[in-house]
Design a protein that fits this description.
686 residues, 19 strands, four-stranded mixed beta sheet
Length: 686
């Protein structure tokens, strides 16, 4: 018989509905059982695309003997970390404190009062590589609880403050200064992998917030040449990832991370958030150096998302699984014989280009087949027509394979990231691309961004206007977290700058006010990750780290600074400064974990160019601005016709001159003389 997860909307939870474990979803029923029976909770946290989550399910949760032990000694709870990042964050940090490492699957034991007292990640079915068998862990924890529950309760409570993230931070008295930004760049240089790009060794993650910070640092004029310092690290990392197996060379889109230092062999899940963030990074990299390959990767990534990840209502699905047919990567791997057969006359050229060999570059004990290859783009590149033909042949050959499972829930925060990527890329293509097909693609991307935003506003808000987090065909649920509000605020501002429709600006201000009301800390500044009326958990956190996606607080800070620059309202800047005062010291000491926060800090410290374009014939002026790579710039525009009104503070009092469109370049709302000459505008922006 299916367990209690059968009625859940989360694909990850439903994956476990046939387990013999008496799983419950997180909620009052599970917590009540633990209290009534004075029994520990075993909380197992994962997500649908997690390879090792599937492995542990097959090895342990489907084993009748292990399941019987779990059911006898514990109240067993399954949590989808993507639906409940609040629960995941608390207990991930607990396991990291206890063991020195973390990851998914995350298995943590709690007292009935929700205090964590033991945990780990993957446990094997029998002792292996110094790890105990999962059944041994279960028996030892159950025995410890029976013999010393009182002492366990006391020790668990000692963790409460430590698990609150940044909630124990107080505002720093150290000044916010540019020297700290330069120090952060120097620290990143020390950990930079000069040979392969990226930071540190294997495994390698696409640290997109750090890449964006480094490009923003260059755009402030602090580095004179593209091939040195901050820009060099960012661009070389983008090139290295684009050439490696972490990027799907056939279908587009990035896998989660590489298991090696040279980006060749990935863990094969594809997450919506990685691809939204990376698409923007590749757009900005292209604008920085002009390399066509970077724009190609941006567009292929977004086209993949529009083709494979978009629901019928315009929202975007969460993830593609790493596994198909129970084996990781099977959908994406090739042996020499299969690729030779698929390519025919193009085989020699394609094999050399994509790095295919008889021996292969992929080994996995779960794969019975030897000589498997992850495709890369490091060999001699054929001409564009040949590349397109090779891709087409291989995609046709790959099409009949069993596809990885799709996690079809739509998350507000991740959809907001995709809105920003589509809006910014689409606006660039519409305004600055020379190719008519690219201009048309730009229109489609902006339209998709608008449709996704309308989907969120229509389907992911309660009747009282409160933002919700999760949408499935069964409906929307769970109150929004800080990251949902902050990412959507950034997205609404990106949509305004892409379309200049003031409805998006008005909605951004409404959302900012609600975010401040629900999440801000009036005592120490900054923002909590959960709303003031959220269910009471073990602790109320302020999540800090921008890894793998920006923290809600970092996103809120940057969005509010941009909103202040557009609106002229200082209250938004003050709220953002509350975040910066709390976090700037730790961020500059640990820049790999605070890329987005460092971007916000830089936005505050460096001059912000506020560009207002007024007039109906503004395309030439707009093109100049769209082609710029300055991260410390905001853009507003409207017709300025007699009687036309605006709600955007930066546009107030701006008018065309003698019927012609003009651009005002301002700092702190103090503007230089307006110009209608695109070349003069380019000079003003340099």
């Amino acid at each position: 018989m299916p367990n209690a997860l059968a009625g859940e909307s989360s694909p990850y939870l439903r994956q476990h509905q046939e387990n013999p474990v008496d799983w419950l979803p997180w909620g009052e029923e599970a917590l009540r059982r633990a209290r009534d029976r004075d029994r520990p909770l075993l909380v197992s946290i994962g997500y649908s695309a997690c390879h090792w989550c599937h492995v542990m399910e097959r090895e342990s949760f489907e084993d009748p003997g292990v399941a019987a032990l779990m059911n006898e000694e514990f109240v067993c709870v399954k949590v989808d970390r993507e639906e409940r990042p609040d629960i995941d964050a608390i207990y991930m940090e607990a396991v990291q404190v206890m063991t020195g490492h973390g990851g998914w699957p995350l298995n943590v034991f709690l007292t009935p009062e929700l205090s964590p007292f033991y945990g780990g990640t993957y446990f094997p079915p029998e002792p292996r590589h110094g790890m105990p068998a999962f059944s041994q862990v279960l028996q030892a924890v159950a025995e410890a609880w029976r013999e010393g529950a009182g002492e366990i309760r006391v020790s668990g409570e000692r963790l409460r403050e430590r698990l609150s993230g940044g909630a124990q931070l107080t505002p720093s008295t150290e000044p916010l200064d540019r020297g700290a930004i330069a120090g952060a760049v120097s620290a990143l240089e020390r950990s930079y992998d000069e040979r392969h790009g990226g930071f540190g060794g294997a495994p390698k993650f696409p640290q997109t917030p750090v890449i964006e910070f480094l490009m923003a640092h260059h755009r402030q004029g602090t580095v004179p040449e593209i091939q040195t310092g901050a820009a060099r690290m960012a661009l070389q990392t983008l090139r290295a990832m684009a050439g490696g197996g972490i990027y799907d060379q056939l279908g587009g889109g990035f896998h989660r991370y590489a298991v090696d230092e040279h980006w060749t062999v990935p863990h094969f899940e594809k997450m919506l958030y990685d691809n939204a963030l990376l698409a923007r990074a590749y757009l900005n990299g292209f604008k920085l150096c002009g390399e066509p390959r970077l724009l190609e990767v941006c567009l292929q990534t977004l086209e993949w998302a529009l083709r494979e990840m978009r629901g019928p209502e315009g929202g975007f699905y969460s993830a593609l699984d790493a596994d198909s047919e129970g084996v990781e990567g099977r959908f994406y791997l090739w042996n020499l014989a299969s690729i030779t057969e698929a390519l025919g006359d193009d085989a020699t050229v394609g094999i050399d280009w994509l790095g295919v060999s008889e021996h292969g570059n992929f080994t996995d004990p779960h794969h019975p087949e030897p000589g498997l290859n992850v495709l890369s783009d490091r060999g001699p590149r054929p001409d564009p027509a040949t590349r397109q033909r090779i891709r087409h042949k291989l995609l046709e050959a790959r099409q009949p394979r069993v596809r990885p499972d799709l996690d079809d829930k739509r998350l507000t925060s991740w959809n907001a990231l995709m809105i920003s990527a589509l809006a910014e890329t689409g606006a660039y293509l519409q305004s600055a691309a020379e190719d008519s097909e690219q201009k048309k693609l730009g229109e489609q991307m902006v339209s998709a961004a608008v449709q996704c935003a309308e989907f969120i506003l229509e389907q992911l808000r309660r009747e009282d206007g409160r933002l919700l987090r999760v949408y499935t065909p069964a409906g929307a649920k769970l109150s929004g977290y800080l990251e949902d509000y902050a990412f959507l605020l950034e997205a609404l501002l990106a949509l305004y700058e892409a379309t200049f429709q003031e409805r998006w600006f008005a909605l951004a201000r409404e959302l900012a006010e609600e975010m401040i009301d629900l999440f801000s800390d009036s005592k120490d500044g900054g923002f909590f990750s959960t709303a003031s009326d959220h269910e009471q958990l073990f602790t109320r956190r302020k999540d800090l780290e921008d890894s793998p996606i920006p923290a809600g607080s970092s996103s809120a800070a940057l969005a509010l600074l941009r909103l202040s620059a557009l609106s002229g309202e200082r209250i938004y800047e003050e709220q953002a400064l509350g975040v910066l005062r709390l976090e700037h010291e730790i961020a500059t000491r640990h820049p790999q974990a605070f890329g987005h926060l460092l971007r916000a800090l830089q936005f505050h410290l460096e001059p912000v160019r506020q560009v207002a374009i007024v007039g109906s014939d503004r395309a030439a002026l707009e093109r100049v601005v769209r082609r710029r790579t300055d991260a410390n710039m905001v853009l507003a525009a409207f017709s300025g016709e007699p009687g036309a009104k605006t709600i955007v503070g930066l546009l107030e009092g701006r008018t065309p001159i003698e019927g012609s469109a003009v651009a005002y370049v301002c700092e702190h709302f103090s503007c230089r003389a307006p110009t209608s000459d695109p070349s003069q505008l380019a000079t003003l922006l340099t």
